[in-house]
Design brief:
The complex is a heterodimer. Chain A has 11 helices and no strands. Chain A has helices spanning about 5-35, 45-55, 60-70, 75-85, 90-115, 120-125, 130-145, 145-160, 165-170, 180-190, 195-225. Helix content of chain B is about 20%, strand content about 35%. Classes of the chains: A mainly alpha, B alpha+beta.
């Protein structure tokens, strides 16, 4: 029923969103932690830079990434010297682009969750012999558990919904960089409305379910704390 | 010598702390002073929660906690810390909070789960969540947690300050009982003189970041030149031996350098030493022994010193045997009775409280 090309695009999208989400959590957690601690000189700048994708047209971000990923660009050169292959128009380029694009959606919920944990708990833990690493895993992680879930879901869903950035840096190669949103656009361009309907409805339902699940788990947690 | 702290700090706010103190290896040492005197800063520096200056040093036994070349982080100092607010982990229940400490024990020689649970009566609380506990119960758990981490030094920063009167007294008696069980030094900060005289063996008095006096509580609290003797809660401590029990009236008699004091029946064997606390405001003076008084404790003594306290009040230091206690009178009474140093008078003592560091005998 679903065309093989559409299936491939769904698989590429899922792979892209999953890998990006894992990387986002690995990169976003320490950044959010650092930002949530006492205010410092570069924090306001960092916060503004991370928040840029929220208001910047994705094509602007995509344009600069395209230049940076080109064989003469900073990231492109670095990539070529490390892997021996060009970066532009590859799946890896999409992953790097997605990480930039979705970073605020992961950093912001984590940052506000970390900020709400009283500093006094860490002091108490330190007096009981907990090292900073131990404090993170025994206090921060369990208390901010739900925010990690929120951050991961938002990062994943936002990457699935990505269009402008991917259009600029992806090249729409089937099986490599052709994701759902691009193939949907292609179907509309070529007037294949029934295939477009299937994909659009699928994305709509996926996004709604994700958000509904997030809001209702919020409700569930609030109940659990009051008990 | 156990803990040696030499700190001089100057904060941009103008606050200064300049102390050089030795804290002995056993017993309760209280740091007493008004708020803003630097008590909490001093404790936090000792704990490693705040950084001391480059020239400062903190040495515990033979371990360097801080000096010019190194600073040991808080989590490696092997301390227990009880904060004014309990700071229990909100995502763990009571037994989870206690296990948190137990899992990270500093050493092997501290009290075990059953002992701590019994001393602080924690068993009924174990299954509860932190939000189900009253402030007093939270503080009991916090003390239990600090003990279970098997510290080499226990630090308490005004642990009773944010509690109501009932929980305060309950925890105060737990702390007194602990005094008997623990063989580690306890550093106790408070601005409440009643608490301090009840608990502390040694007293360090801080004023505006400087140590104005340090020594045994017994001696310091009856010295007229110190501020502590002039406070509303001022009290003296006397040491005596249990002489007799009167089961008919549920009273006990204690011998204080040849004089007898009567107090509510105590469960302490004859011949044992005990300490009692006599508040200055509960001692009045008579020139003759009044036979028709409801007051049981009337003992002859000598006026050792007289010191004006406020416009209306005068503080008198009385001597019985080799010990001293205080009486706070109005200036009017002192003039009416024409009291002067060296006079032989009778002290009428309205209340005598046992300092219960021996009440927990049956546990040991």
């Amino acid at each position: 029923m679903i065309a093989p090309q559409d299936l491939t695009a769904i698989w590429v999208t899922f792979k892209l969103a999953s890998i990006s989400t894992i990387l986002l959590l690995i990169i976003g957690t320490p950044i959010a932690w650092w930002l949530s601690q006492k205010p410092g000189k570069f924090k306001k700048i960092t916060e503004a830079v991370i928040a840029l994708p929220l208001i910047l047209p994705p094509t602007v971000l995509g344009f600069y990434l395209l230049i940076a990923f080109s064989p003469n660009g900073l990231i492109g050169q670095l990539w070529q010297s490390l892997t021996g292959a060009p970066l532009a128009f590859t799946f890896s380029a999409l992953v790097i682009g997605s990480v930039f694009y979705s970073l605020p959606f992961v950093v912001q919920p984590l940052q506000s969750a970390f900020r709400q944990i009283p500093q006094g708990l860490y002091e108490a833990a330190a007096t009981m012999g907990a090292s900073p690493k131990d404090q993170f895993f025994s206090i921060t992680a369990p208390i901010a558990k739900r925010s990690f879930l929120t951050a991961a879901s938002l990062g994943f869903a936002h990457t699935v919904g990505e269009f402008g950035v991917i259009l600029m840096i992806g090249g729409n190669i089937p099986g490599e960089t052709q994701v759902l949103s691009l193939i949907l656009f292609e179907h509309v361009e070529t007037l294949q409305y029934s295939r477009a309907h299937g994909l659009a409805a699928g994305l709509l339902i996926f996004s709604f379910i994700t958000l509904y699940w997030l809001y209702s788990s919020d409700h569930f947690d609030a109940l659990k704390i009051k008990r | 010598m156990s803990l040696h702290v030499n700190i001089s700090l100057q904060r941009p706010s103008g606050f200064e702390l300049d102390v050089d103190i030795h804290i002995p290896n056993r017993g309760y040492t209280a740091i007493y002073g008004a708020s803003g005197s630097g008590k909490t800063t001093l404790l936090r520096c000792i704990a490693g929660l705040e950084s001391a200056g480059a020239k400062d040093s903190i040495i515990f036994n033979h371990d360097v906690w801080h000096n010019q070349s190194q600073t040991l982080p808080c989590h490696q100092r092997g301390i227990g810390f009880v904060f004014q607010d309990a700071r229990l982990m909100p995502h763990l229940d009571v037994s989870g909070n206690l296990k948190y400490a137990l899992d990270r024990r500093h050493g092997n020689c501290g009290p075990n789960w059953d002992q701590v649970s019994q001393w602080l009566n924690l068993a009924p609380l174990l299954e509860k969540t932190v939000s189900q506990l009253s402030a007093g119960q939270q503080q009991r758990v916090a003390i239990g947690r600090a003990l279970l981490s098997a510290p080499q030094l226990l630090i308490m920063d005004e642990p009773l300050a944010s509690l109501d009167e009932i929980s305060k007294n309950e925890i105060l008696s737990s702390l007194e009982a602990l005094h008997y069980h623990l063989d580690i030094p306890v550093l106790y900060v408070s601005h409440d003189l009643a608490e301090v005289t009840q608990l502390a063996d040694q007293l360090i008095i801080l004023e505006q970041g400087n140590v104005v006096s340090e020594g045994r509580t017994l001696e310091l609290c009856s010295q007229l030149q110190l501020g502590v003797a002039h406070e509303e809660q001022a009290a003296a401590i006397l040491v005596g031996t249990v002489k007799a029990h009167d089961d008919l009236y549920a009273l006990s008699e204690i011998d204080i350098d040849g004089e007898t004091l009567t107090l509510a029946r105590v469960d302490i064997p004859l011949g044992e030493n005990i300490r009692v606390r006599i508040p200055a405001r509960d001692v009045s003076i008579a020139l003759n022994r009044s036979e028709q008084s409801s007051i049981l404790n009337i003992i002859p003594c000598r006026i050792d010193a007289i010191e004006p306290s406020t416009e209306a009040r005068i503080l008198i230091r009385l001597q019985t045997g080799n010990q001293f206690f205080l009486s706070r009178l109005t200036r009017k009474s002192v003039e009416k009775l024409a009291l002067s140093v060296g006079d032989q008078v009778f002290a009428q003592i309205k209340s005598v409280a046992l300092l219960s560091d021996r009440q927990a005998d049956d546990h040991v």
